[in-house]
Amino acid sequence: MPSPPGPPLKLELVPGAVVAGKYRLVELLRRGGMGSVWVATHLSLQSPVAIKFMTMRSRIAIAGDPSAEQEEEALYRTRFEREARAAAQIRATNVVQILDYGIDRSIPYLVMELLHGEDLGTRLGRVKRLSFADTTSILGQIARALDRAHATGLVHRDLKPENIFLCNEGGEEVVKILDFGVAKALNPDQKVGTPTLEGVVVGTPHYMSPEQAVGHAEVDHRSDLWSLGVIAFTAISGRKPFEGELFLEMVVKICSGVPAKPSAVAPDLGPDVDRFFERALCRDPAGRFQSARELVTAFAELGRGRGEQVVLPSTGTYAGVKLPSVPPAPPRKRGGSFVIVVVAAAIGVGMGFVVWSLSEKDTSDAAPSRVATQALDAEVAASSPAPSASAAPTSAALEVGAAPSASAQPSTPSSAAASATAPIVPRGRPKPLPSSTATGSRDVGY
To answer: 411 vs 295, 300, 302, CA distance in Å?
Structure first.
């Protein structure tokens, strides 16, 4: 009697396909440049999950190097496994839960909880601006997760609105951080994967810190704090502090340009807000806030000074956990000219590469009114606030609660002081990894 046929040699990602003998694919949520995300059912538990698959193909053309694509595929595989292990280390309410991962017929996959709601980028695209109170609520939950991750020796390195998912859980809005796929271990004894080498650029340009944009190896948790500052700037002003269309353009602006002043973007924001962001976006990491909690606490004071009812989320059971010690940043060359920055960045980032454009969009095969999810590794602008923000329903059974009010209050002075530093001159030869730029309520951000 012939034995029953085994699984096909090639895994076809179609509805009904079974992955690793455990998960049946139900619906494609999003397809992007580096993979796709599906709704699936765990066959034994009959529970819904989200599965992220990695597409093993090059997004960067490297001239004159026939082995480049194979090396890039190996890098993607390593990064994918590191993503699962890094995220699984952080057991926190505000980090997406990783359930399983593996490689089935040469396709890496990551299984995670299925989230209902929308990402912060989608919300900002709809309401343009948030109040200090609403922004503080979101930032506070992000800070709670970041401080815990940083205390365990992990840096996210790709924080952006599209990686901040706003879930409806029991009628309350819960923030989930997505994508620890580019996380870097601060401690050499943590087996999270090979640390990123100096000269490799990882992250999404608009939200990169200067030291990250030029590929410095000593990126630490304060890089995440820069990104958190950019998110806060975008949420309360309706635009980013640095704008650009090309990767190289963004590197130049972040490393040597002057960020927009919030008060110039939104006149209702006063000098106290400007001073806060001078510190949050200080090019020298030593001049920034030194923990996410410190940043959010200072931000909350800005809202209280405007008469808003600002409430910081509790720190939870890990209150007071000590951050990893950070050695002093090595001396940097000061006073480098704009031309030097441009030339160095052009040599390190542009030469031999097809320059990556920030306007690239991913495509979605799913209707926007159905259940929304976000997977890891994801990527708004007006000068006046919207009067209200009611979130669109994400499924027939679950509707996201009304989005926070986007009203702004008259400003009053506060005492957030900081100083800017000289431009950071890129060193080494940064090799940019692909980053994400997609947006949308169903965006999984590849």
So the answer is: 19, 13, 8
Which residue, 232, 280, 237, 281, is CA-closest to 255? Answer: 281
Rounded Cα–Cα distance for residues 438 and 119 (Å): 12
pTM score of the predicted model:
0.66
Residue 425 φ/ψ, nearest 5 degrees: -90, 125
CA distance 429 to 431: 6
In the predicted structure, residue 134 carries a pLDDT above the cut 50: yes
Q: Which residues contact 199 (CB under 8 A, 6 or more apart)?
A: 215, 217, 348, 428, 429, 430, 431
- Break the chain into its structural domains and give their ranges: 18-112, 118-432
- Is the pLDDT assigned to residue 393 strictly greater than 80? no
The CATH architecture annotation of domain 18-112 reads: 2-Layer Sandwich (3.30)
Q: Report whether 117 contacts 96 (CB < 8 A).
A: no
b or e along 249-280 (b: 16 or more beta carbons within 10 Å of the residue's beta carbon)? bbbbbbbbbebbbbbebbebbbebbbbbbbbb
Is the pLDDT confidence value at 43 over 50?
A: yes
* In the predicted structure, residue 370 carries a pLDDT above the cut 80: no
* Number of neighbouring beta carbons within 10 Å of residue 75: 13
Residues 6+ apart with CB under 8 A from 269: 236, 237, 262, 263, 408, 411
Neighbours of 82 (CB within 10 A): 21
Largest Cα separation within the chain, whole Å, is: 84
- Band (427; pLDDT cuts 50, 70, 90): very low
Q: Clarify whether 224 is annotated catalytic.
A: no
Same fold yes or no, 18-112 and 118-432: no
- Active-site pick, 119, 147, 158, 274: 158
Question: How many CB atoms are located within 10 Å of the residue 84 CB?
Answer: 23
Helix (H, G, I), strand (E, B) or coil at 364: coil
Distance separating alpha carbons of residues 215 and 349, to the nearest angstrom: 10
Long-range Cβ pairs for the range 340-343 (8 Å, 24+): 340/425, 341/252, 341/255, 341/256, 341/423, 341/425, 341/426, 342/252
Structure tokens, 3: 């034995």
Question: For 118-432, which CATH superfamily applies?
Answer: Transferase(Phosphotransferase) domain 1 (1.10.510.10)
| Residue position matching structure tokens 């994918």 | 80
406: amino acid identity, one letter: A
